[in-house]
Amino acid sequence: MRNTRRRLRGTVALAAMATAAASLAGLAQLAQAQGSTAEEIAKYRQMLAEGNPAELWEAAGEELWKKPAGPKNASLEQCDLGKGPGVTKGAYAELPRYFKDANKVMDLEQRLAWCRVTLQGLTQEEATKQPFSASGKSSDIERLASYLTGESRGVKMNVQLTHPEEKRVYALGQKMFFYRGGAYDFACATCHAVDGQRIRLQDLPNLLESKGAQAAYTTWPAYRVSQGEVRTMQHRIYDCLRQQRFPEPAYGSDVITALSMFLAKNANGGTYDGPNMKR
Amino acid sequence: MTRYQSMALTAVATLALAAMATFSLSALAQDAAKPARATKSASAATTAKVTDADVRQMIESSFTSKGPATVEGVINQDGAQKACSQYPDRTRVPATIAKKVEAAELKQVKYPADSNWIGDWKEGEKIAQNGRGMQFTDPVGGVNGGNCYACHQMTKAEISFGNIGPSLYQYGKLRGNSPEVVKYTWGKIWDSNAYSACSNMPRFGHKGILTEQQIRDVMALLLDPASPVNQ
What we know:
The complex is a heterodimer of chains A (279) and B (231).
Chain A: H1 2-31, H2 37-48, H3 54-66, E1 97-99, E2 104-106, H4 108-118, H5 124-127, H6 140-150, H7 164-177, H8 188-192, E3 197-199, E4 202-204, H9 210-217, E5 222-224, E6 229-231, H10 233-243, E7 248-249, H11 254-266, E8 276-278
Parallel strand pairs in A: 5-8
Antiparallel strand pairs in A: 1-2, 3-4, 5-6
Helix pairs in contact in A: 1-2, 3-6, 7-11, 10-11
Chain B: H1 3-26, H2 52-62, E1 63-64, H3 71-75, H4 79-86, H5 95-106, H6 121-129, H7 171-175, H8 179-190, H9 212-223
């Protein structure tokens, strides 16, 4: 029943996108007289608000979550995302967090891999295979992450620094945010520590202020119109580090969790609104 | 998702993308923005102490060198990178430290031995537009761009420009091309920190991002009276 509703909404989404794309061409001509690109893109997003293609990823992720798989032929439904085994509602809004069983602070995607290993019997390598879709290769992880994040839609971000490990990981993320290195001397802070900045026409959120951190953090994962895929927070940070001219971060590595912890905590109080949609 | 839906989705996404591309080209009127200064430092409600060694260990265990982007290039911070990681807001670097960084960086500037400072502004414009290079997806030893427009307004014609750096429109027209201006401009491109400690701008000559010839061409874009920057 739920899936049927989702599929229907997905079809509506397609129609809405077609209309919006056509309208956008018209909007382009008006743009000169009508203010900034950001405002126009906001209007575009508004038109599509009721029809985000990410819903198709959410529905597929829910199926993957509930379907028995792996050597143990088990579903992921008993996965503990921090609020107890099987609780998906609101779990993402409290991640990253410390997990006693793993003795580690984990973000959503590290935890997902943990559950695929422990519950389904996959190897770590199998559980983290194809974290980002590429042409012709879809990603189960992007689908599962879409479903799980969607389960926190409307929930206020509430990441706590209670356990000493949570404090330590936050502090590492903070230090990393200001760390300058590589060929271009860039830190995250080079682009994300001041209000009102842009690269070309792209607005850059100030991630040190709750307003900017909330706007950014609560809207990933997102369906990327330019890529035709849903991209996760892991991918967003991976791609930032590429543009920062840093070397390649491993999927699920500690540096990404530390930066996520720093951003998520700074975004506390913001209402989670993902999977969202972006250019 | 059915095959039909999947195809339709791709088609629509492509259409939307094409529309958006048109859109950003024709979008107009970016004010020469005056970004507000960062007012608060990180709202750090944290008591945990982490050391430089902890960060180094995290970097070593998380990253793999690939293409031109190496782990060593991130771990082995030079003096400026180390100092500026402590003072991320360059307006708040203590004056003594700023002076020290600037003096050390100025010594690193290599001026053209043949006193040939000014190249071809048309080539300079291409370099200013090009944002490629030095990412882990790029080849080693490829030709890099300067990506000036990412952060600076340069010409009237290019309306897609960023605002992290100041507007450079009419750079030469406003300053002239005296030997002092020419030398300063070369030094600023070669090593931005020589004149402004902890600048956000890459050190294009010092870090080998641009070649000497490419810097000549960017110099022409800024200083040649015929350059569109100076119209």
